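User: Fold this, then the next.

Assistant: Folding the first:
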Amino acid sequence: MANRTLNTGRDAAPAPFTVLMDATGLSPAMQKLGAQLKLAAATDASVFIVGESGTGKEVVARAIHEASERSDQPFVAVNCGAINGTLAHAELFGHEKGSFTGAVSQNAGYFEYASGGTLFLDEVTEMTPDMQVHFLRVLETGTYQRVGGSDLLRANVRVICASNRDPAASVADGRLRQDFLHRLLVIPLRVPPLRERENDALVLAHQFLDTLNRENGTGKTFAPRMLEAMALHDWPGNVRELRNAVQRAYIMADDELDAVMLARGRSERRAEMREGALNLPIGTPLLRAQREFILATLAHYAGDKRMAAEALGVSLKTLYNRLDAYDKDATDEAGG
């Protein structure tokens, strides 16, 4: 591991969007990204954000939206991997009453909800080939129809998409249509992983702790040992892992968050995994065991959700729902 200079980052904990748009005090990689975001926000062109899981791709998308002329209009985030395959058309484009079983009324789709604003397609490489064709048609014509409808509706949205996969590799392995990619990849952005961002982990850690203190009326601080431990850790789960680590340490601390709490939190969250086997203590609650098994399987497949879902014998949508629930649980624990 390369030597790193310890910088507590205590004097540089800007607000979420300021962290990206005004990257003063952050790493050169983030300063470069901040400059790119300003250029992207000044246009209405499609943006394709690439970055590892947990790097904050949706935060980047929201920052572009907030800095654009569409900021007073909706920002609608769609998890492409969680869209129900049989109802995908209705979810994206809306449907008319009686257009299919269960369609008891006219419903708007994501395009209508985002009208005038930004439509964010997360995990876009998980979109089915059929939906890519229909989506491409909307991007090319600027119009669409609700399921069961005949009226042409105008799609007034700015499209931003994101993936933790390399776009070119996704085309090569058949996940993404090349013509669809050409429409999306007008402005490419890469969000660097936390391990490439020097002392940014400490800046973000202080931001997370400041938020927790403000929400709960506390004044907890980081112990020097924890600051050093956070600076030296590679954070394979990136910003999401860092945020959850700070939340866990905050919950366990009386006044000072210590490195021992950080290590304990990691050991509790990650069941020991050796040679493809998962070891859990006897008496582990069933729901926790299920959670650890799912997270360990996902880690085993290097974050590839499709492969993890296949190995677990569940649908990709089910896996996304479980992961979203785990993220919400971590946030609720910190807030309570």
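Now the next one, as you asked:
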Amino acid sequence: MDPGSEVRVRQRLLHLGLNSLVFGICYLLANRLAQQQDIHRHVALALDAQIPFWPWMLLPYLSSGLWLGAAFFALRSRDGLRVFSQRLLLATVLAALVFVLYPLRFSLPRPAVDTPWLAALYDMLAWVDRPYNQLPSLHVAYCLLLWVSLRDLLAPLWARSLLAGGLLLTAVSTLFTYQHHLLDLLGGVALGSLCVYAVRPGRSAPQVALYYLVASGVAAVVGLATWPALLTLYAVLSLGLVSLAYARGDRQFLHKRDGRHPWWIAILYAPYLLGYRLSWRAVAWHERHRPTIQQMAPQLWIGRRLSEAEARLLPTGCSVFDLCCELPETPALRPSQHQRYRHFPLLDIVAPPAEVVQAIVAALRRETAAGHTVYLHCAMGYRRCVQIAKAFTESTP
């Protein structure tokens, strides 16, 4: 993937939708949990009591949603969109974890608002956003992430100055609308800085490990708010181990042998494996009227993991090259039933190492040179098997 390539609207909407979903789940659950616990703890300083209440500051405060929505459509490259989206996800989940582990409440009573339309807006805000979720301020963290992502898009000094002024006004509005204390703002700056450091630009591959880390964080927030402690720990650990495997590039982390996972792997990674099983069934149903496999070369066919009935339709003596590590092989194609089965585990979504691709291509050459037809498959038939098949056809004279 070219970091500088253009971004499709669908990709922008997917990133926006994912961030909206994670924010909606984590922020609202943390807020509700603090309200249920009737939290009164705060981190107000003596100086906070001297900060005036300016009702009109609600307008820049509410503008944060417009800033965020616009940013997803203003960024010009895939890499820029990826970096911004992942930084936001990380900031949201880390802040929510703090909110549920150390909930705080704003300490000062909000004065009455005389202007009717502003009073209505404050009433609406109070209905949606209770006076919790304080430290760190996500408003401030988001403003910092917006500035870092958008500043290079604006060449003229006046345009950058307007951007900086608008974001700064949005950030400090949290003080003058009595939404946050000073320490909350400092926490927001620290959180935003951490996310900038953790998610770097210029990657040619998706940062899959971070997405599973975010999923683990979401599980922690949801679990702490609604699940028993042991179930929460299990879900967090399971998804966290998947994140670690992707970070290490560990293709063998599921220990699939002879087309099956060990029982302890099936238990330890149940949420991850179940997700792939459901996705596979959804793909099979969605594409039920399309050909299951496609021919890429005279002796090479590719596709997804087959069902038991589909597997019986393969030619007699067909060799099976299984690239999928997340799903067990169809029983009819396992070594106990099918003598020409080989497993080459590849992580999904990320590009496989060049030496691994070369090894699989070499094995394909030997198999086809021996006169065998090969069925090469991954989980869904969209990515891994296509990559290997292209490498095979491009290397064949």
